[in-house]
Design brief:
Elements lengths: L14 H29 L5 H12 L5 H19 L2 H20 L9 H21 L7 H12 L3 H8 L1 H10 L2 H23 L4 E7 L3 H12 L4 E6 L6 E10 L3 H11 L4 E6 L15
Antiparallel strand pairs: 1-3, 1-4, 2-3
Helix pairs in contact: 1-4, 1-5, 2-3, 2-8, 3-4, 3-6, 5-9, 6-7, 7-9, 8-9, 10-11
Length: 293
């Protein structure tokens, strides 16, 4: 085998990981079904993406099964996923789509909530949490999740932005078919759902990029390696005003480690110049924060 030959992706990482993925997918499907059947349908709301299109069609032709509609509308996206995304994500997404379809068919929970705005907020929270849990697995629930992962992997476009942008099409249909009030409530559902998806997928696994400038750079670097257990890159620099050579430390840490890092730096040198910035995604076997798509 040549050095450039592509190693095929393992379909299942391990049995514990497989069970965890199935738990995430099925829990997410149950939450989405509760949000859709318990809130969206009774209040005549819709949501974004393929689920929203399925709800629009179902509202116009109630005799059509919502779960079956969802599967049929996903077929073109699965063709795209087969060509553009790994086979693991493809297989898990089929499982997720079938799981959501079955949940929509058999799970019907009544949620006694009359206030329209509160209902829209709760629907966004519940469906966003369900979709986010599925994306925390090695797959998704189909629909716009497939397109979102494709754009994230290829162009680093965040999932919540893709969901919001692609949901504009559903909003146009709602605006043409329903009242302005229904359009605004749908916008609330879509916005909240997209934000919750981003929080669940990234959450506490968000990574922070940190630049550190200090004359005590050697000691700080050693303490980061020893106490935080994160890698450090030392960059050569020059002071723009003083002209003196400088050393800049660059490291990436988890959000939960950021407090310890700041305490470590200020203990060694309270006058350290530190810049902390968000990261869109980090790909690495130790510090990476993306699921195994």
């Amino acid at each position: 085998m040549s050095a450039k030959a592509k190693i095929p992706q393992a379909l299942f990482l391990s049995w514990p990981r497989l069970l965890a993925d199935l738990l995430l997918i099925n829990t997410g499907s149950v939450l989405c079904a509760i949000g859709i059947n318990g809130i969206l349908l009774p209040h005549h709301f819709v949501t974004g993406g393929i689920t929203g299109l399925a709800l629009l069609i179902h509202n116009q032709i109630p005799v059509l099964n919502l779960g079956l509609l969802y599967v049929l509308l996903n077929i073109p996206l699965f063709i795209m996923a087969w060509m553009a995304v790994g086979r693991r994500f493809f297989v898990y997404s089929i499982i997720g789509t079938l799981s959501l379809s079955l949940a929509l068919t058999f799970i019907h929970v009544e949620i006694p909530l009359d206030d329209q705005l509160l209902s829209a907020l709760l629907a966004g929270l519940v469906t966003g949490a369900g979709a986010g849990l599925a994306l925390r697995s090695s797959g998704s629930q189909g629909g716009l999740d497939i397109l979102s992962v494709m754009l994230l992997k290829r162009f680093s476009i965040s999932i919540d932005r893709t969901v919001l942008a692609m949901s504009i099409m559903v909003l146009l249909f709602v605006g043409l078919s329903y009242s302005l009030e229904a359009l605004l409530y749908t916008l609330v559902v879509i916005f909240v759902s997209a934000k919750v998806v981003g929080i669940v997928v990234t959450g506490l696994s968000q990574r922070k990029a940190v630049f550190i400038i200090s004359p005590e750079w050697q000691r700080i670097s050693q303490e980061i390696l020893k106490d935080i257990r994160r890698g450090v890159t030392v960059l050569d620099a020059q002071g723009g005003y003083s002209g003196r050579p400088e050393k800049i430390l660059y490291t990436v840490v988890a959000l939960t480690e950021l407090g310890d890092l700041k305490r470590l730096i200020t203990t060694i040198d309270p006058d350290t110049f530190v810049v902390i910035s968000d990261t869109m995604e980090v790909i690495n076997y130790r510090i990476g924060n993306q699921p195994h798509w």
